[in-house]
Amino acid sequence: MQSEFYVYTINDGTQSRRLVSPLNSEFAQAHGLVKEAIAGEFTGEQDSPETFNANPDFVRFLQWAVAKHVPQAPGFVQHAQEQQDGPVFIVNHRARLHGEEPQIEDVLGAVEVSAGKATNFKGSADYKTLNAHGFLHIDPWLYDKYMEELQAHAKANPANGQPTA
Length: 165
Fold this sequence. Notes:
Layout: E1 6-11, E2 16-21, H1 25-31, E3 40-42, E4 52-54, H2 56-69, H3 74-83, E5 86-91, E6 107-114, E7 117-123, H4 140-156
Antiparallel strand pairs: 1-2, 2-3, 3-4, 5-6, 6-7
């Protein structure tokens, strides 16, 4: 699923910042933007991968949610049962939308599979939140679980002192 990301211009009293989040404006206005919901910030005049500073808290939360839910993801379960043993890479498919093969920066992480079952997930340190092909494009079931986790986290941890959209 190709997700939507929203750019929020936030004035913090001293400067104007352009923060990026997968949370829509209605949700962000109601709950604020917790650090795990901020994908990063555009720092230049143009919104591009070159002017984007990724937020490591966003990536850690995304990888945590993937690790939690991927063992139940229908597409993963089928793949793991067919493969039986070894790593299964969880890939952001944004490059495929443009007819290209995913690169190392598109790999969210790998799940170790043993006897057709997930045993361990390890997030990739090389994953890039944004590249020339965009932000996030993963299995729709897994994306929905990620968004459920992110919204629940934001509701449980109000963005006290954090930016609101």
